[in-house]
Amino acid sequence: MEKFKTIESKVMPLDRANVDTDAIIPKQFLKSVKRSGFGPNLFDEWRYLDHGEPGMDNSVRPRNMDFVLNQEQYQGAQILVARENFGCGSSREHAPWALEDYGFRVIIAPSFADIFFNNCFKNGLLPIVLDAETVDRLFKAVDATDGYALVVDLQKQAITTPDGERIAFEVDAFRKHCLLEGLDDIGLTLEHVEDIKAYEARRKQQAPWLFA
Amino acid sequence: MAAKTLYDKLWDEHVVREEQDGTSLLYIDRHLVHEVTSPQAFEGLRLAGRQAWRTDTVLATPDHNVPTTDRSQGIEDPVSRIQVETLDQNCVDFGITEFKMDDVRQGIVHVIGPEEGAILPGMTVVCGDSHTSTHGAVGALAFGIGTSEVEHVLATQCLIQKKSKNMLVSVDGPLPAGVTAKDMVLAIIGEIGTAGGTGYAIEFAGQAVRELSVEGRLSLCNMTIEAGARAGMVAVDDKTIDYMRGKPYAPTDEQWDQAVAHWRTLVSDEDAVFDRVVRIDAATIRPQVTWGTSPEMVVSIDNAVPDPAQESDPVKSAGMQAALEYMGLQANTPISEIRPDKVFIGSCTRVATRSRTTSSWRWWCPVPDWSNSRPNRKAWTRSSLTPVSNGVNRVVRCAWR
Ligand code: SF4
To answer: What chain B residue is nearest to A198 in terms of C-alpha separation?
Structure first.
């Protein structure tokens, strides 16, 4: 996993509550044998006017220009703001894969679904919970200001707005460490390589038939 | 030293390190891989530039997407074909042994593991498949994992786990005639419910379990997950050891003796304490018939289809009603009056292996006594027989000739 650095980026507003994982990446794309390449089908049903299937050439599909993802001013945004209960529904890990593949690194919402929230950290995404009023303020500011951008500093646990306001956020210390160091579960376990090797050496003595 | 259960022993032997809160790094001895839950795991390794930690512990086979008919034609469905081809390629790229679709050893992963002796007593076994509990039957600790965990085990040979609680299910007394392992496990699920085992590792014990063949024990443990527990197991005895002898992957010579000496210790200590104990009198178990859409919707063959109106819990009652509608059954119909439309033999809950005496075709005969009471035997069934592995296929074909 890539190390999580300070993010300075435009903000894309997704003004909906209860965005479920099927909206994030519809079920027909789950047949894939890959974990990358979901970005072009992120929010497929809202983003395109036709029905999407795996294998289609997305560049020629009719796009829904009312949807934020297709709007010029938000291109390249790495920060998504959304309303409450983001990521509810099925536990598919494809949802964070798709968001990450598209290029998002931070998602801000008043609340997240549990499994999705955990899956984000495993995949290098930072979900930030802010109170509903603050989120609402962000939506208004994004609406009012062209190219509205935020700085997200995970180390300091602070978001800075264009006019210098600092918004503090909470994050579990262990999760923070993993993101900053670019450690996924595997990376973490591999911090204990010596323990694993010592176990194997011991075990080889006791049960050599398992190493034949 | 404190008395230990079989599960305690298997667990303790595999802990690499333990955190304060009990989260442990558990070492994995055997990793079975199939085409459905592995592609993203391999891709994850590739994206991160990681290798497989110990390829000799991994055994792969395609088993969900392979045709049950003529395989020389290849796989027709494109999605299925891609999954199988992806597995083939991944095994080549990562140096993993694969029993490919046409290999004489290919079969459902939970059958070929024991069949080849790739699962041994005392091993920790994982696979991206909930029915991995099957392998506990030979005194192993086996459970299903998700795709991220498949990747984790491939990369580190370890799994991050918290220990479960201990449950003992003891089926006491001799196994009645005509009652199989499958009846036994359905009766157990009928007793404790599909969530009864949640949070536990179950050890199956008692005279009736001892009397089962190893194949029967595999069937029993296969459905542990339907009882809500991720792992089910049976202690090692002479039958387990005889079963392992001479299997392709089993140890030989000096190492065999050494292994057997260790395997003999894989039983719960006499005074070991279980968090929950369930005792069932084997004499009360009759052949079981499921009448609904969940494995806990089960009754004995001499009972009738239950009546939702008699169920006081409204949620349960509605569930029963929906199941009956789906099945096209009437409440209170005696089970013995329902004619089977089709007979299907061969899913791996009915694990059959190379042993001739226990292969699955034999239970063709003890199906109730329709064969006697209804003169026209052909009229009542359309039957399918699907051997669970190429090995079983050969036994069945010889036996039927
Ligand atoms: S019976 Fe079917 S679902 Fe169950 S373990 Fe065997 S193949 Fe898998």
So the answer is: B16
Q: Is the pLDDT of residue B399 over 70?
A: no
Calculate how close chain A gets to B14, using CA atoms only, in Å.
9
**Residue range A7-181, CATH number:** 3.20.19.10
The answer to whether A111 and A129 have CB atoms below 8 angstroms apart is: yes
How close is the Cα of B13 to the center of ligand 1, in Å? 29
Taking only the tens place, the pLDDT of each residue in B296-336 is 889 999 999 999 999 998 888 998 999 999 999 999 999 98
Inter-residue long-range contacts of B126-129, CB under 8 Å, 24+ positions, other chains counted = B126/B28, B126/B30, B126/B31, B126/B32, B126/B150, B126/B153, B126/B159, B127/B31, B127/B32, B127/B33, B127/B34, B128/B33, B128/B34, B128/B36, B128/B37, B128/B38, B128/B41, B129/B32, B129/B34, B129/B36, B129/B37
- On chain B, the residues whose CB falls within 8 A of the CB of A31 are 79
Beta-strand ranges (E) seen in B120-272 are 124-127, 141-144, 158-161, 165-172, 200-205, 231-233
- Put simply, the answer to whether B40 touches A33 (Cβ < 8 Å) is yes
Long-range contact pairs involving B80-88 (C-beta distance under 8 Å, separation at least 24): B82/A33, B83/A33, B83/B35, B83/B36, B83/B39, B84/B35, B86/A33, B86/B35, B86/B39, B86/B42, B87/B33, B87/B34, B87/B35, B87/B38, B87/B39, B87/B60, B87/B62, B88/B62
Domain boundaries of chain A, sorted by first residue: 7-181, 183-212
Q: Which of A209, A197, A190, A201 is nearest to B123 (CA)?
A: A209
Contact B158 A189 (CB under 8 A): yes
Contacts of B160 in chain A (CB under 8 A): 185, 189
pLDDT at A184: 87
The CB of B345 under 6 Å from ligand 1? The reply is: no
- Inter-chain touch B43–A212, beta carbons under 8 Å: no
Average confidence (pLDDT) over B331-348:
81
